[in-house]
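Input record, target 12 of the design panel.
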């Protein structure tokens, strides 16, 4: 129901509007409904729409951490790194993020 209300409003052609709606859903599921898995689903949708937007990446990381879905997060980042069209700076940032996640996971085991 909530998804229908939020995703059904406004023009879908505008990426900024779509990102705002999907980001709102992500936040509601994470912070209000305490459903990190569904929040991660919405964060993933936003990331697939705009993977180089810092706020989108931060939301994805926040939702993945809450859901304990580090493997999913790393897989998304690796898929993006493998894309030949991304700038080298973004590729390096994603590789750094992957290494940081791996280091943190190793530290907990």
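The sequence produced for target 12 reads:
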């Amino acid at each position: 129901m909530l998804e229908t209300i939020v995703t059904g409003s406004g023009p879908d052609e505008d990426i900024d509007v779509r990102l705002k709606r999907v980001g709102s859903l992500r936040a509601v599921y994470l912070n209000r409904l305490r459903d990190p898995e569904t929040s991660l689903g919405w964060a993933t949708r936003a990331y697939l729409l705009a993977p180089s937007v810092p706020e989108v990446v931060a939301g994805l990381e926040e939702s993945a951490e809450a859901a304990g879905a580090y493997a999913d997060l790393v897989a998304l980042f690796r898929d993006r790194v493998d894309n030949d069209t991304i700038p080298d700076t973004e590729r390096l940032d994603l590789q750094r993020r992957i290494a940081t996640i791996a280091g943190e996971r190793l530290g907990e085991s």
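The CA atoms of residues 81 and 88 lie 9 Å apart.
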